[in-house]
Amino acid sequence: MTAARTDDPARPEWAEGPGARGQGGRAWAIARVNMVRLRGDRRSAFAGLVLPILIMILVGVIFGGGASRLGVGVVDLDHSPVSARAVTLFERSSNLHVRHYSTDAKAAGALRRGLVLGGVSLPSGYAAAVQAGRRPSVFLLYNAGQVQSEEARADLVAVLAQVDAEVSAARFAQAGTGLPFRLGLARAEAIDDAAYRASLRRPEPAKISPFAYTAPSNLVLFTFIMAMAVSAGFVQSRRLGVVRRMLSTPTSPLAVIGGESAGILGVALGQGIFLFLVGALILRVHWGDPLGVALVIIVQSLAAAGAGLLVGTLARTQEQALAIAIPTGIAAGMLGGCMWSLDIVGPTMRAVGHFVPQAWSMDAFVALSYHHAGLGRIGGDLAALAGFAVVLGGAGALMLRRSVAADH
């Protein structure tokens, strides 16, 4: 029996022991060493684990919406029963918090100072115009492009539409049956009030978490960025001659490729699972169907690992790998809907966004979380992600094989 030499510089420590008896064991040892090395890097831990959580919380708190009612300013210059009805509906809206102002200038000033998110002014003659079937010149105040201000405007318009519908019903009853307008209006209002009281008795639907979008978006964004960034470790191994020393042992090039690939995949998968648990347990995000979420995380991790392999073979230095990974990850995240929903962009940009895998991941997460979709609905998204995984992973593995063969 011959004892193995442990002091041989050409035989690295990972090649020893029973785990190295086959090429699969060697590949696993390479992946394990890479992940242990990354775990000891505090900068990577901060960038991959702490930073996404901080961004999730910050964006969710500032832009999540739904946490409180929207402040709006209301000016009633008509002082009629119809305008008073509109004011009543504004005040009982579950989405609006009403502040009363006596003039349009005061309401506009409150909007500029940020005291309200929107406003409405009911002009003198508002009731007469509505009753005559004309469109009154209602003055709406809001900041175009600001999400919550646009939401406030939409809620104000909805209330005005309800008032218009009640008046239209009274006018129709008056023309068809001769019912006095005031009596017809009172009946229309009574019907709406009864429906409102009935809605109060129904169980309130579960509110969507303010972190429901920022949690999956940061999971997707940072999974791809970190998978591409950790490929810098392989670049360093090549520069330091570690790959050549591994190949001087009975380790095959395929084992090296498999080990490096598995290491990147382990980082992507581990980060995805960690951020999922943070969203579910700490931020109380309802992710949707567990099996669907698990499949999205797994398949997108495969795609991210493929992208990491590609960067690791294209870059010649660690700095170059990071210079490729971070800007590319951020740009793809922007195109793919990690910074903002693709629902707010035009069809052309939406189509362009789906040239990157991040868009398909976000489509799947949004369908699962917001629309309670099942596997059938996200099947196309999973298929697209699998396609990216095959293309990126195949290209990365092919280039990595050439790189390893050159070192061999």
Question: What key attributes describe this structure?
Answer:
single chain; 408 residues; mainly alpha; abc type-2 transporter like fold; 2 domains; four-stranded mixed β-sheet; 16 helices; 4 strands; 5% strand; disordered N terminus
Task: List the SSEs and their pairings.
Layout: H1 23-39, H2 42-63, E1 70-76, H3 81-92, E2 96-100, H4 104-112, E3 118-122, H5 126-131, E4 139-142, H6 147-177, H7 181-201, H8 214-229, H9 232-240, H10 242-247, H11 253-282, H12 290-314, H13 318-335, H14 347-353, H15 357-370, H16 375-407
Helix pairs in contact: 1-11, 2-8, 2-11, 3-6, 6-7, 8-11, 8-12, 8-13, 8-15, 9-13, 11-12, 11-16, 12-15, 12-16, 15-16
Strands, count:
4
Query: Secondary-structure element sequence?
Result: HHEHEHEHEHHHHHHHHHHH
User: What's the helix count?
Assistant: 16
* Residue runs with pLDDT of under 50 for 5 or more positions: 1-20
Average pLDDT works out at 81
The proportion of strand residues reads: 5-15%
Radius of gyration: 30 Å
Distance between the termini: 30 Å
Percent range for helical residues?
55-70%
Largest sheet: 4 strands, mixed
Q: Tell me the strand order in the biggest sheet.
A: 2-1-3-4
How many independent structural domains?
2
